[in-house]
Amino acid sequence: MITRRNFCKKTMLLVGGLAIPLAAFELFDPKKLLADKSDNARERWVFLVDTYKCTGCGFCVKACKIENEVPYDANVTRTWVERYVITKDGRTFADTPKGARDGFTTGKIALGEGMFQEIGNEDIDKAFFVPKLCNQCDNPPCVQVCPVGATYQTADGVVLVDRTWCIGCGYCIMGCPYGVRFFHPVYHVAEKCNFCYHRITKGMKSACVDACPFDARRIGNIKDPDDPVTKIIMTERVGILKEEYGTKPQVFYIGLSKEVK
Amino acid sequence: MKNHVWRPLYVALGIVAMILVARELYVPKDFGIHERGYMYGWHRKSDETYWKNFKVKYKTSEYCKGCHEDKYADIKGSPHGNIMCENCHGPALGHPADPPTLTIDRSRELCVRCHSYLPYKTSGRGKIRGINPETHYPEAECVMCHYPHNPKREAKK
Between B39, B48, B122, which is nearest A160 by CB? Predict the structure, then answer.
């Protein structure tokens, strides 16, 4: 004999159960999973940073903010430059005042809250600059956590944000191990570097690459074997950031040091 | 079975139907998984066009060369030849139509981005000739003595 309580329970289970397989059938459609791997895209944008060449002038940050309409005086930026100073007694200092929008014009390390650390010239063991930007990961965790499909990866590997579709939940900002995402102060949605998608799809280079006087930043297509950037990545010693996260970042660094996080 | 037993089922089915209808109305037609598959590809296809049509502001020195060939040649042959015009002159945007003139940054702050001396031998910065901005004529603009298009030449009066 079926009771009303039991019947209600089973009805709910049945309806819930019917709703799940509709999505589940699609999830495990082998044809679609296979298609995912055999992509026919002719481009896969990658970035190459030479930390020996970078002088910390910050022209890249300035150009990026203007090109991509990121409010100039807001303390957010799609790309930034970090300074690392390692002293002879083994201490590491790192700073990026205003994301290096105005460059590094003093030897004092900004500790935040208006405090500075003076380091004597003779105490410096090594000092260098590391430009940072979105790694356009092959396994982008920021895309995976988006609950609404507002951030996504294009066929050529660039991760974009749909400004009209983003609900501003901030999961992607938390999910990015490289901290490249932030809220856009005007649009109030997630914002990130997209390798200047409007430029690279027109055959131009990213604004930061054009602005760099020292060739410290270069952009290339890893699927083109004749691309000079591809040749360097394939034949020279390049490093990536936070390899242990398994995100497969596509920004490669020459002269990376263990102090760089 | 009696009618009151079936009633919750109709309610549940009604809710499911409503969700499906709302989904059909609200989700755009071009929303789907597209090239990068289920894990990373969910998006509105038309948003790619939004980003592709984003306005280009920096037109690069090759664009400037079209009209200002003399200036282009001037700087290209100098130690400052690697600096693109728009780094100091500002983005070209729609110049010369809009804006007709560009705002040139002649400030000390611009020059000391590179020329404030930092003793970083392990970086390209340590190889650039530099000054201490606090002691090197702090009251003067750099362009009063130095000609930015060619630092080897004297400033234009």
Answer: B48
